[in-house]
Amino acid sequence: MRRQFAAFSLSALAAVATGFSALPSQADEAQKVLESPSSGFNLSAIEAKVAQGDAAAAAGKLQQAKADYDSAREAAQNLTRFYRNLSGSFRGLDARIPREMDQKGRAALELQASIDLRLASLLRRMNQPASAVPLLVEVVQIMTPASPMGQKAYQGLVELGFVSTPYAAAGAAPTP
After folding, report:
1. Does 10 fall in a domain?
2. Which of 4, 92, 109, 134 is deepest in the core (most CB within 10 A)?
3. For residue 100, what are the domain limits?
4. Where does residue 116 rank: exposed (0-12), middle (13-18), buried (19+ CB within 10 A)?
5. Mean pLDDT of 108-112
6. pLDDT tens digit sequence for 52-109
7. pLDDT at 8 over 90
8. Which positions ≥6 away from 136 have C-beta within 8 Å?
9. Number of structural domains found in the chain
10. Residue 162 lies in a domain
11. Contact of 89 with 77, CB cutoff 8 Å
12. 156-165 burial by CB neighbour count: b if 16+ within 10 A, else e?
C-alpha cells in the first residue's frame, strides 16, 4: 500500500512540477499581451484607442468617439501615475529605473494632453463647451503655456470666453 501511495505521490508531484514549469511561458505570454500594440496596457494600445475615437468622430459617431477618448484618457492617466510611482519607489536605489520611468511617464503625459485636446474639441462639437474647460485647463497645467499643446489649449479657453487675455508666446509681441 505504501508503495502505491509513494508511486501516486511521485506521479502527482511530477504533474505539479510540469505545471509549474509551464508557468514561466504563460507569464511570458501575459507580458507580451501587455506589450501588444493593439491591446494591453501601454502607449501603443492607448494610441490605437485614440485612433478608434478619431475614426468614430470622423464618421459622426460622437458618443462612440467620446467613449473611446474617455477610455484612452483614463488609461493614459493610469500609466502616468504608475510610472511616477515606480520612479519614486526606485529613487536612490538604481538610477536607471527612475530615468526609464520618467521618460515613459513624460510620453504618457503628452499622450494624455493630446487626448484631452481631442476630447475638448469633441465636447465643443457636441455643444458642451463648459465640459471642455477643465480639460483645456489641465492641458495648460501639465504641458505649460509655452508648449504648442499648452498654447492651443489656452487659445481654446480664449475662444470659449473662459479667459479674455490672449497669450503671446515668447518672441511674439504681446497684443494690447
Report:
1. no
2. 109
3. 38-127
4. buried
5. 93
6. 999 999 999 999 999 999 999 999 999 999 999 989 888 888 888 889 989 999 999 9
7. no
8. 116, 117, 120, 153, 154, 156, 157, 160, 162
9. 1
10. no
11. no
12. bbeeeeebee
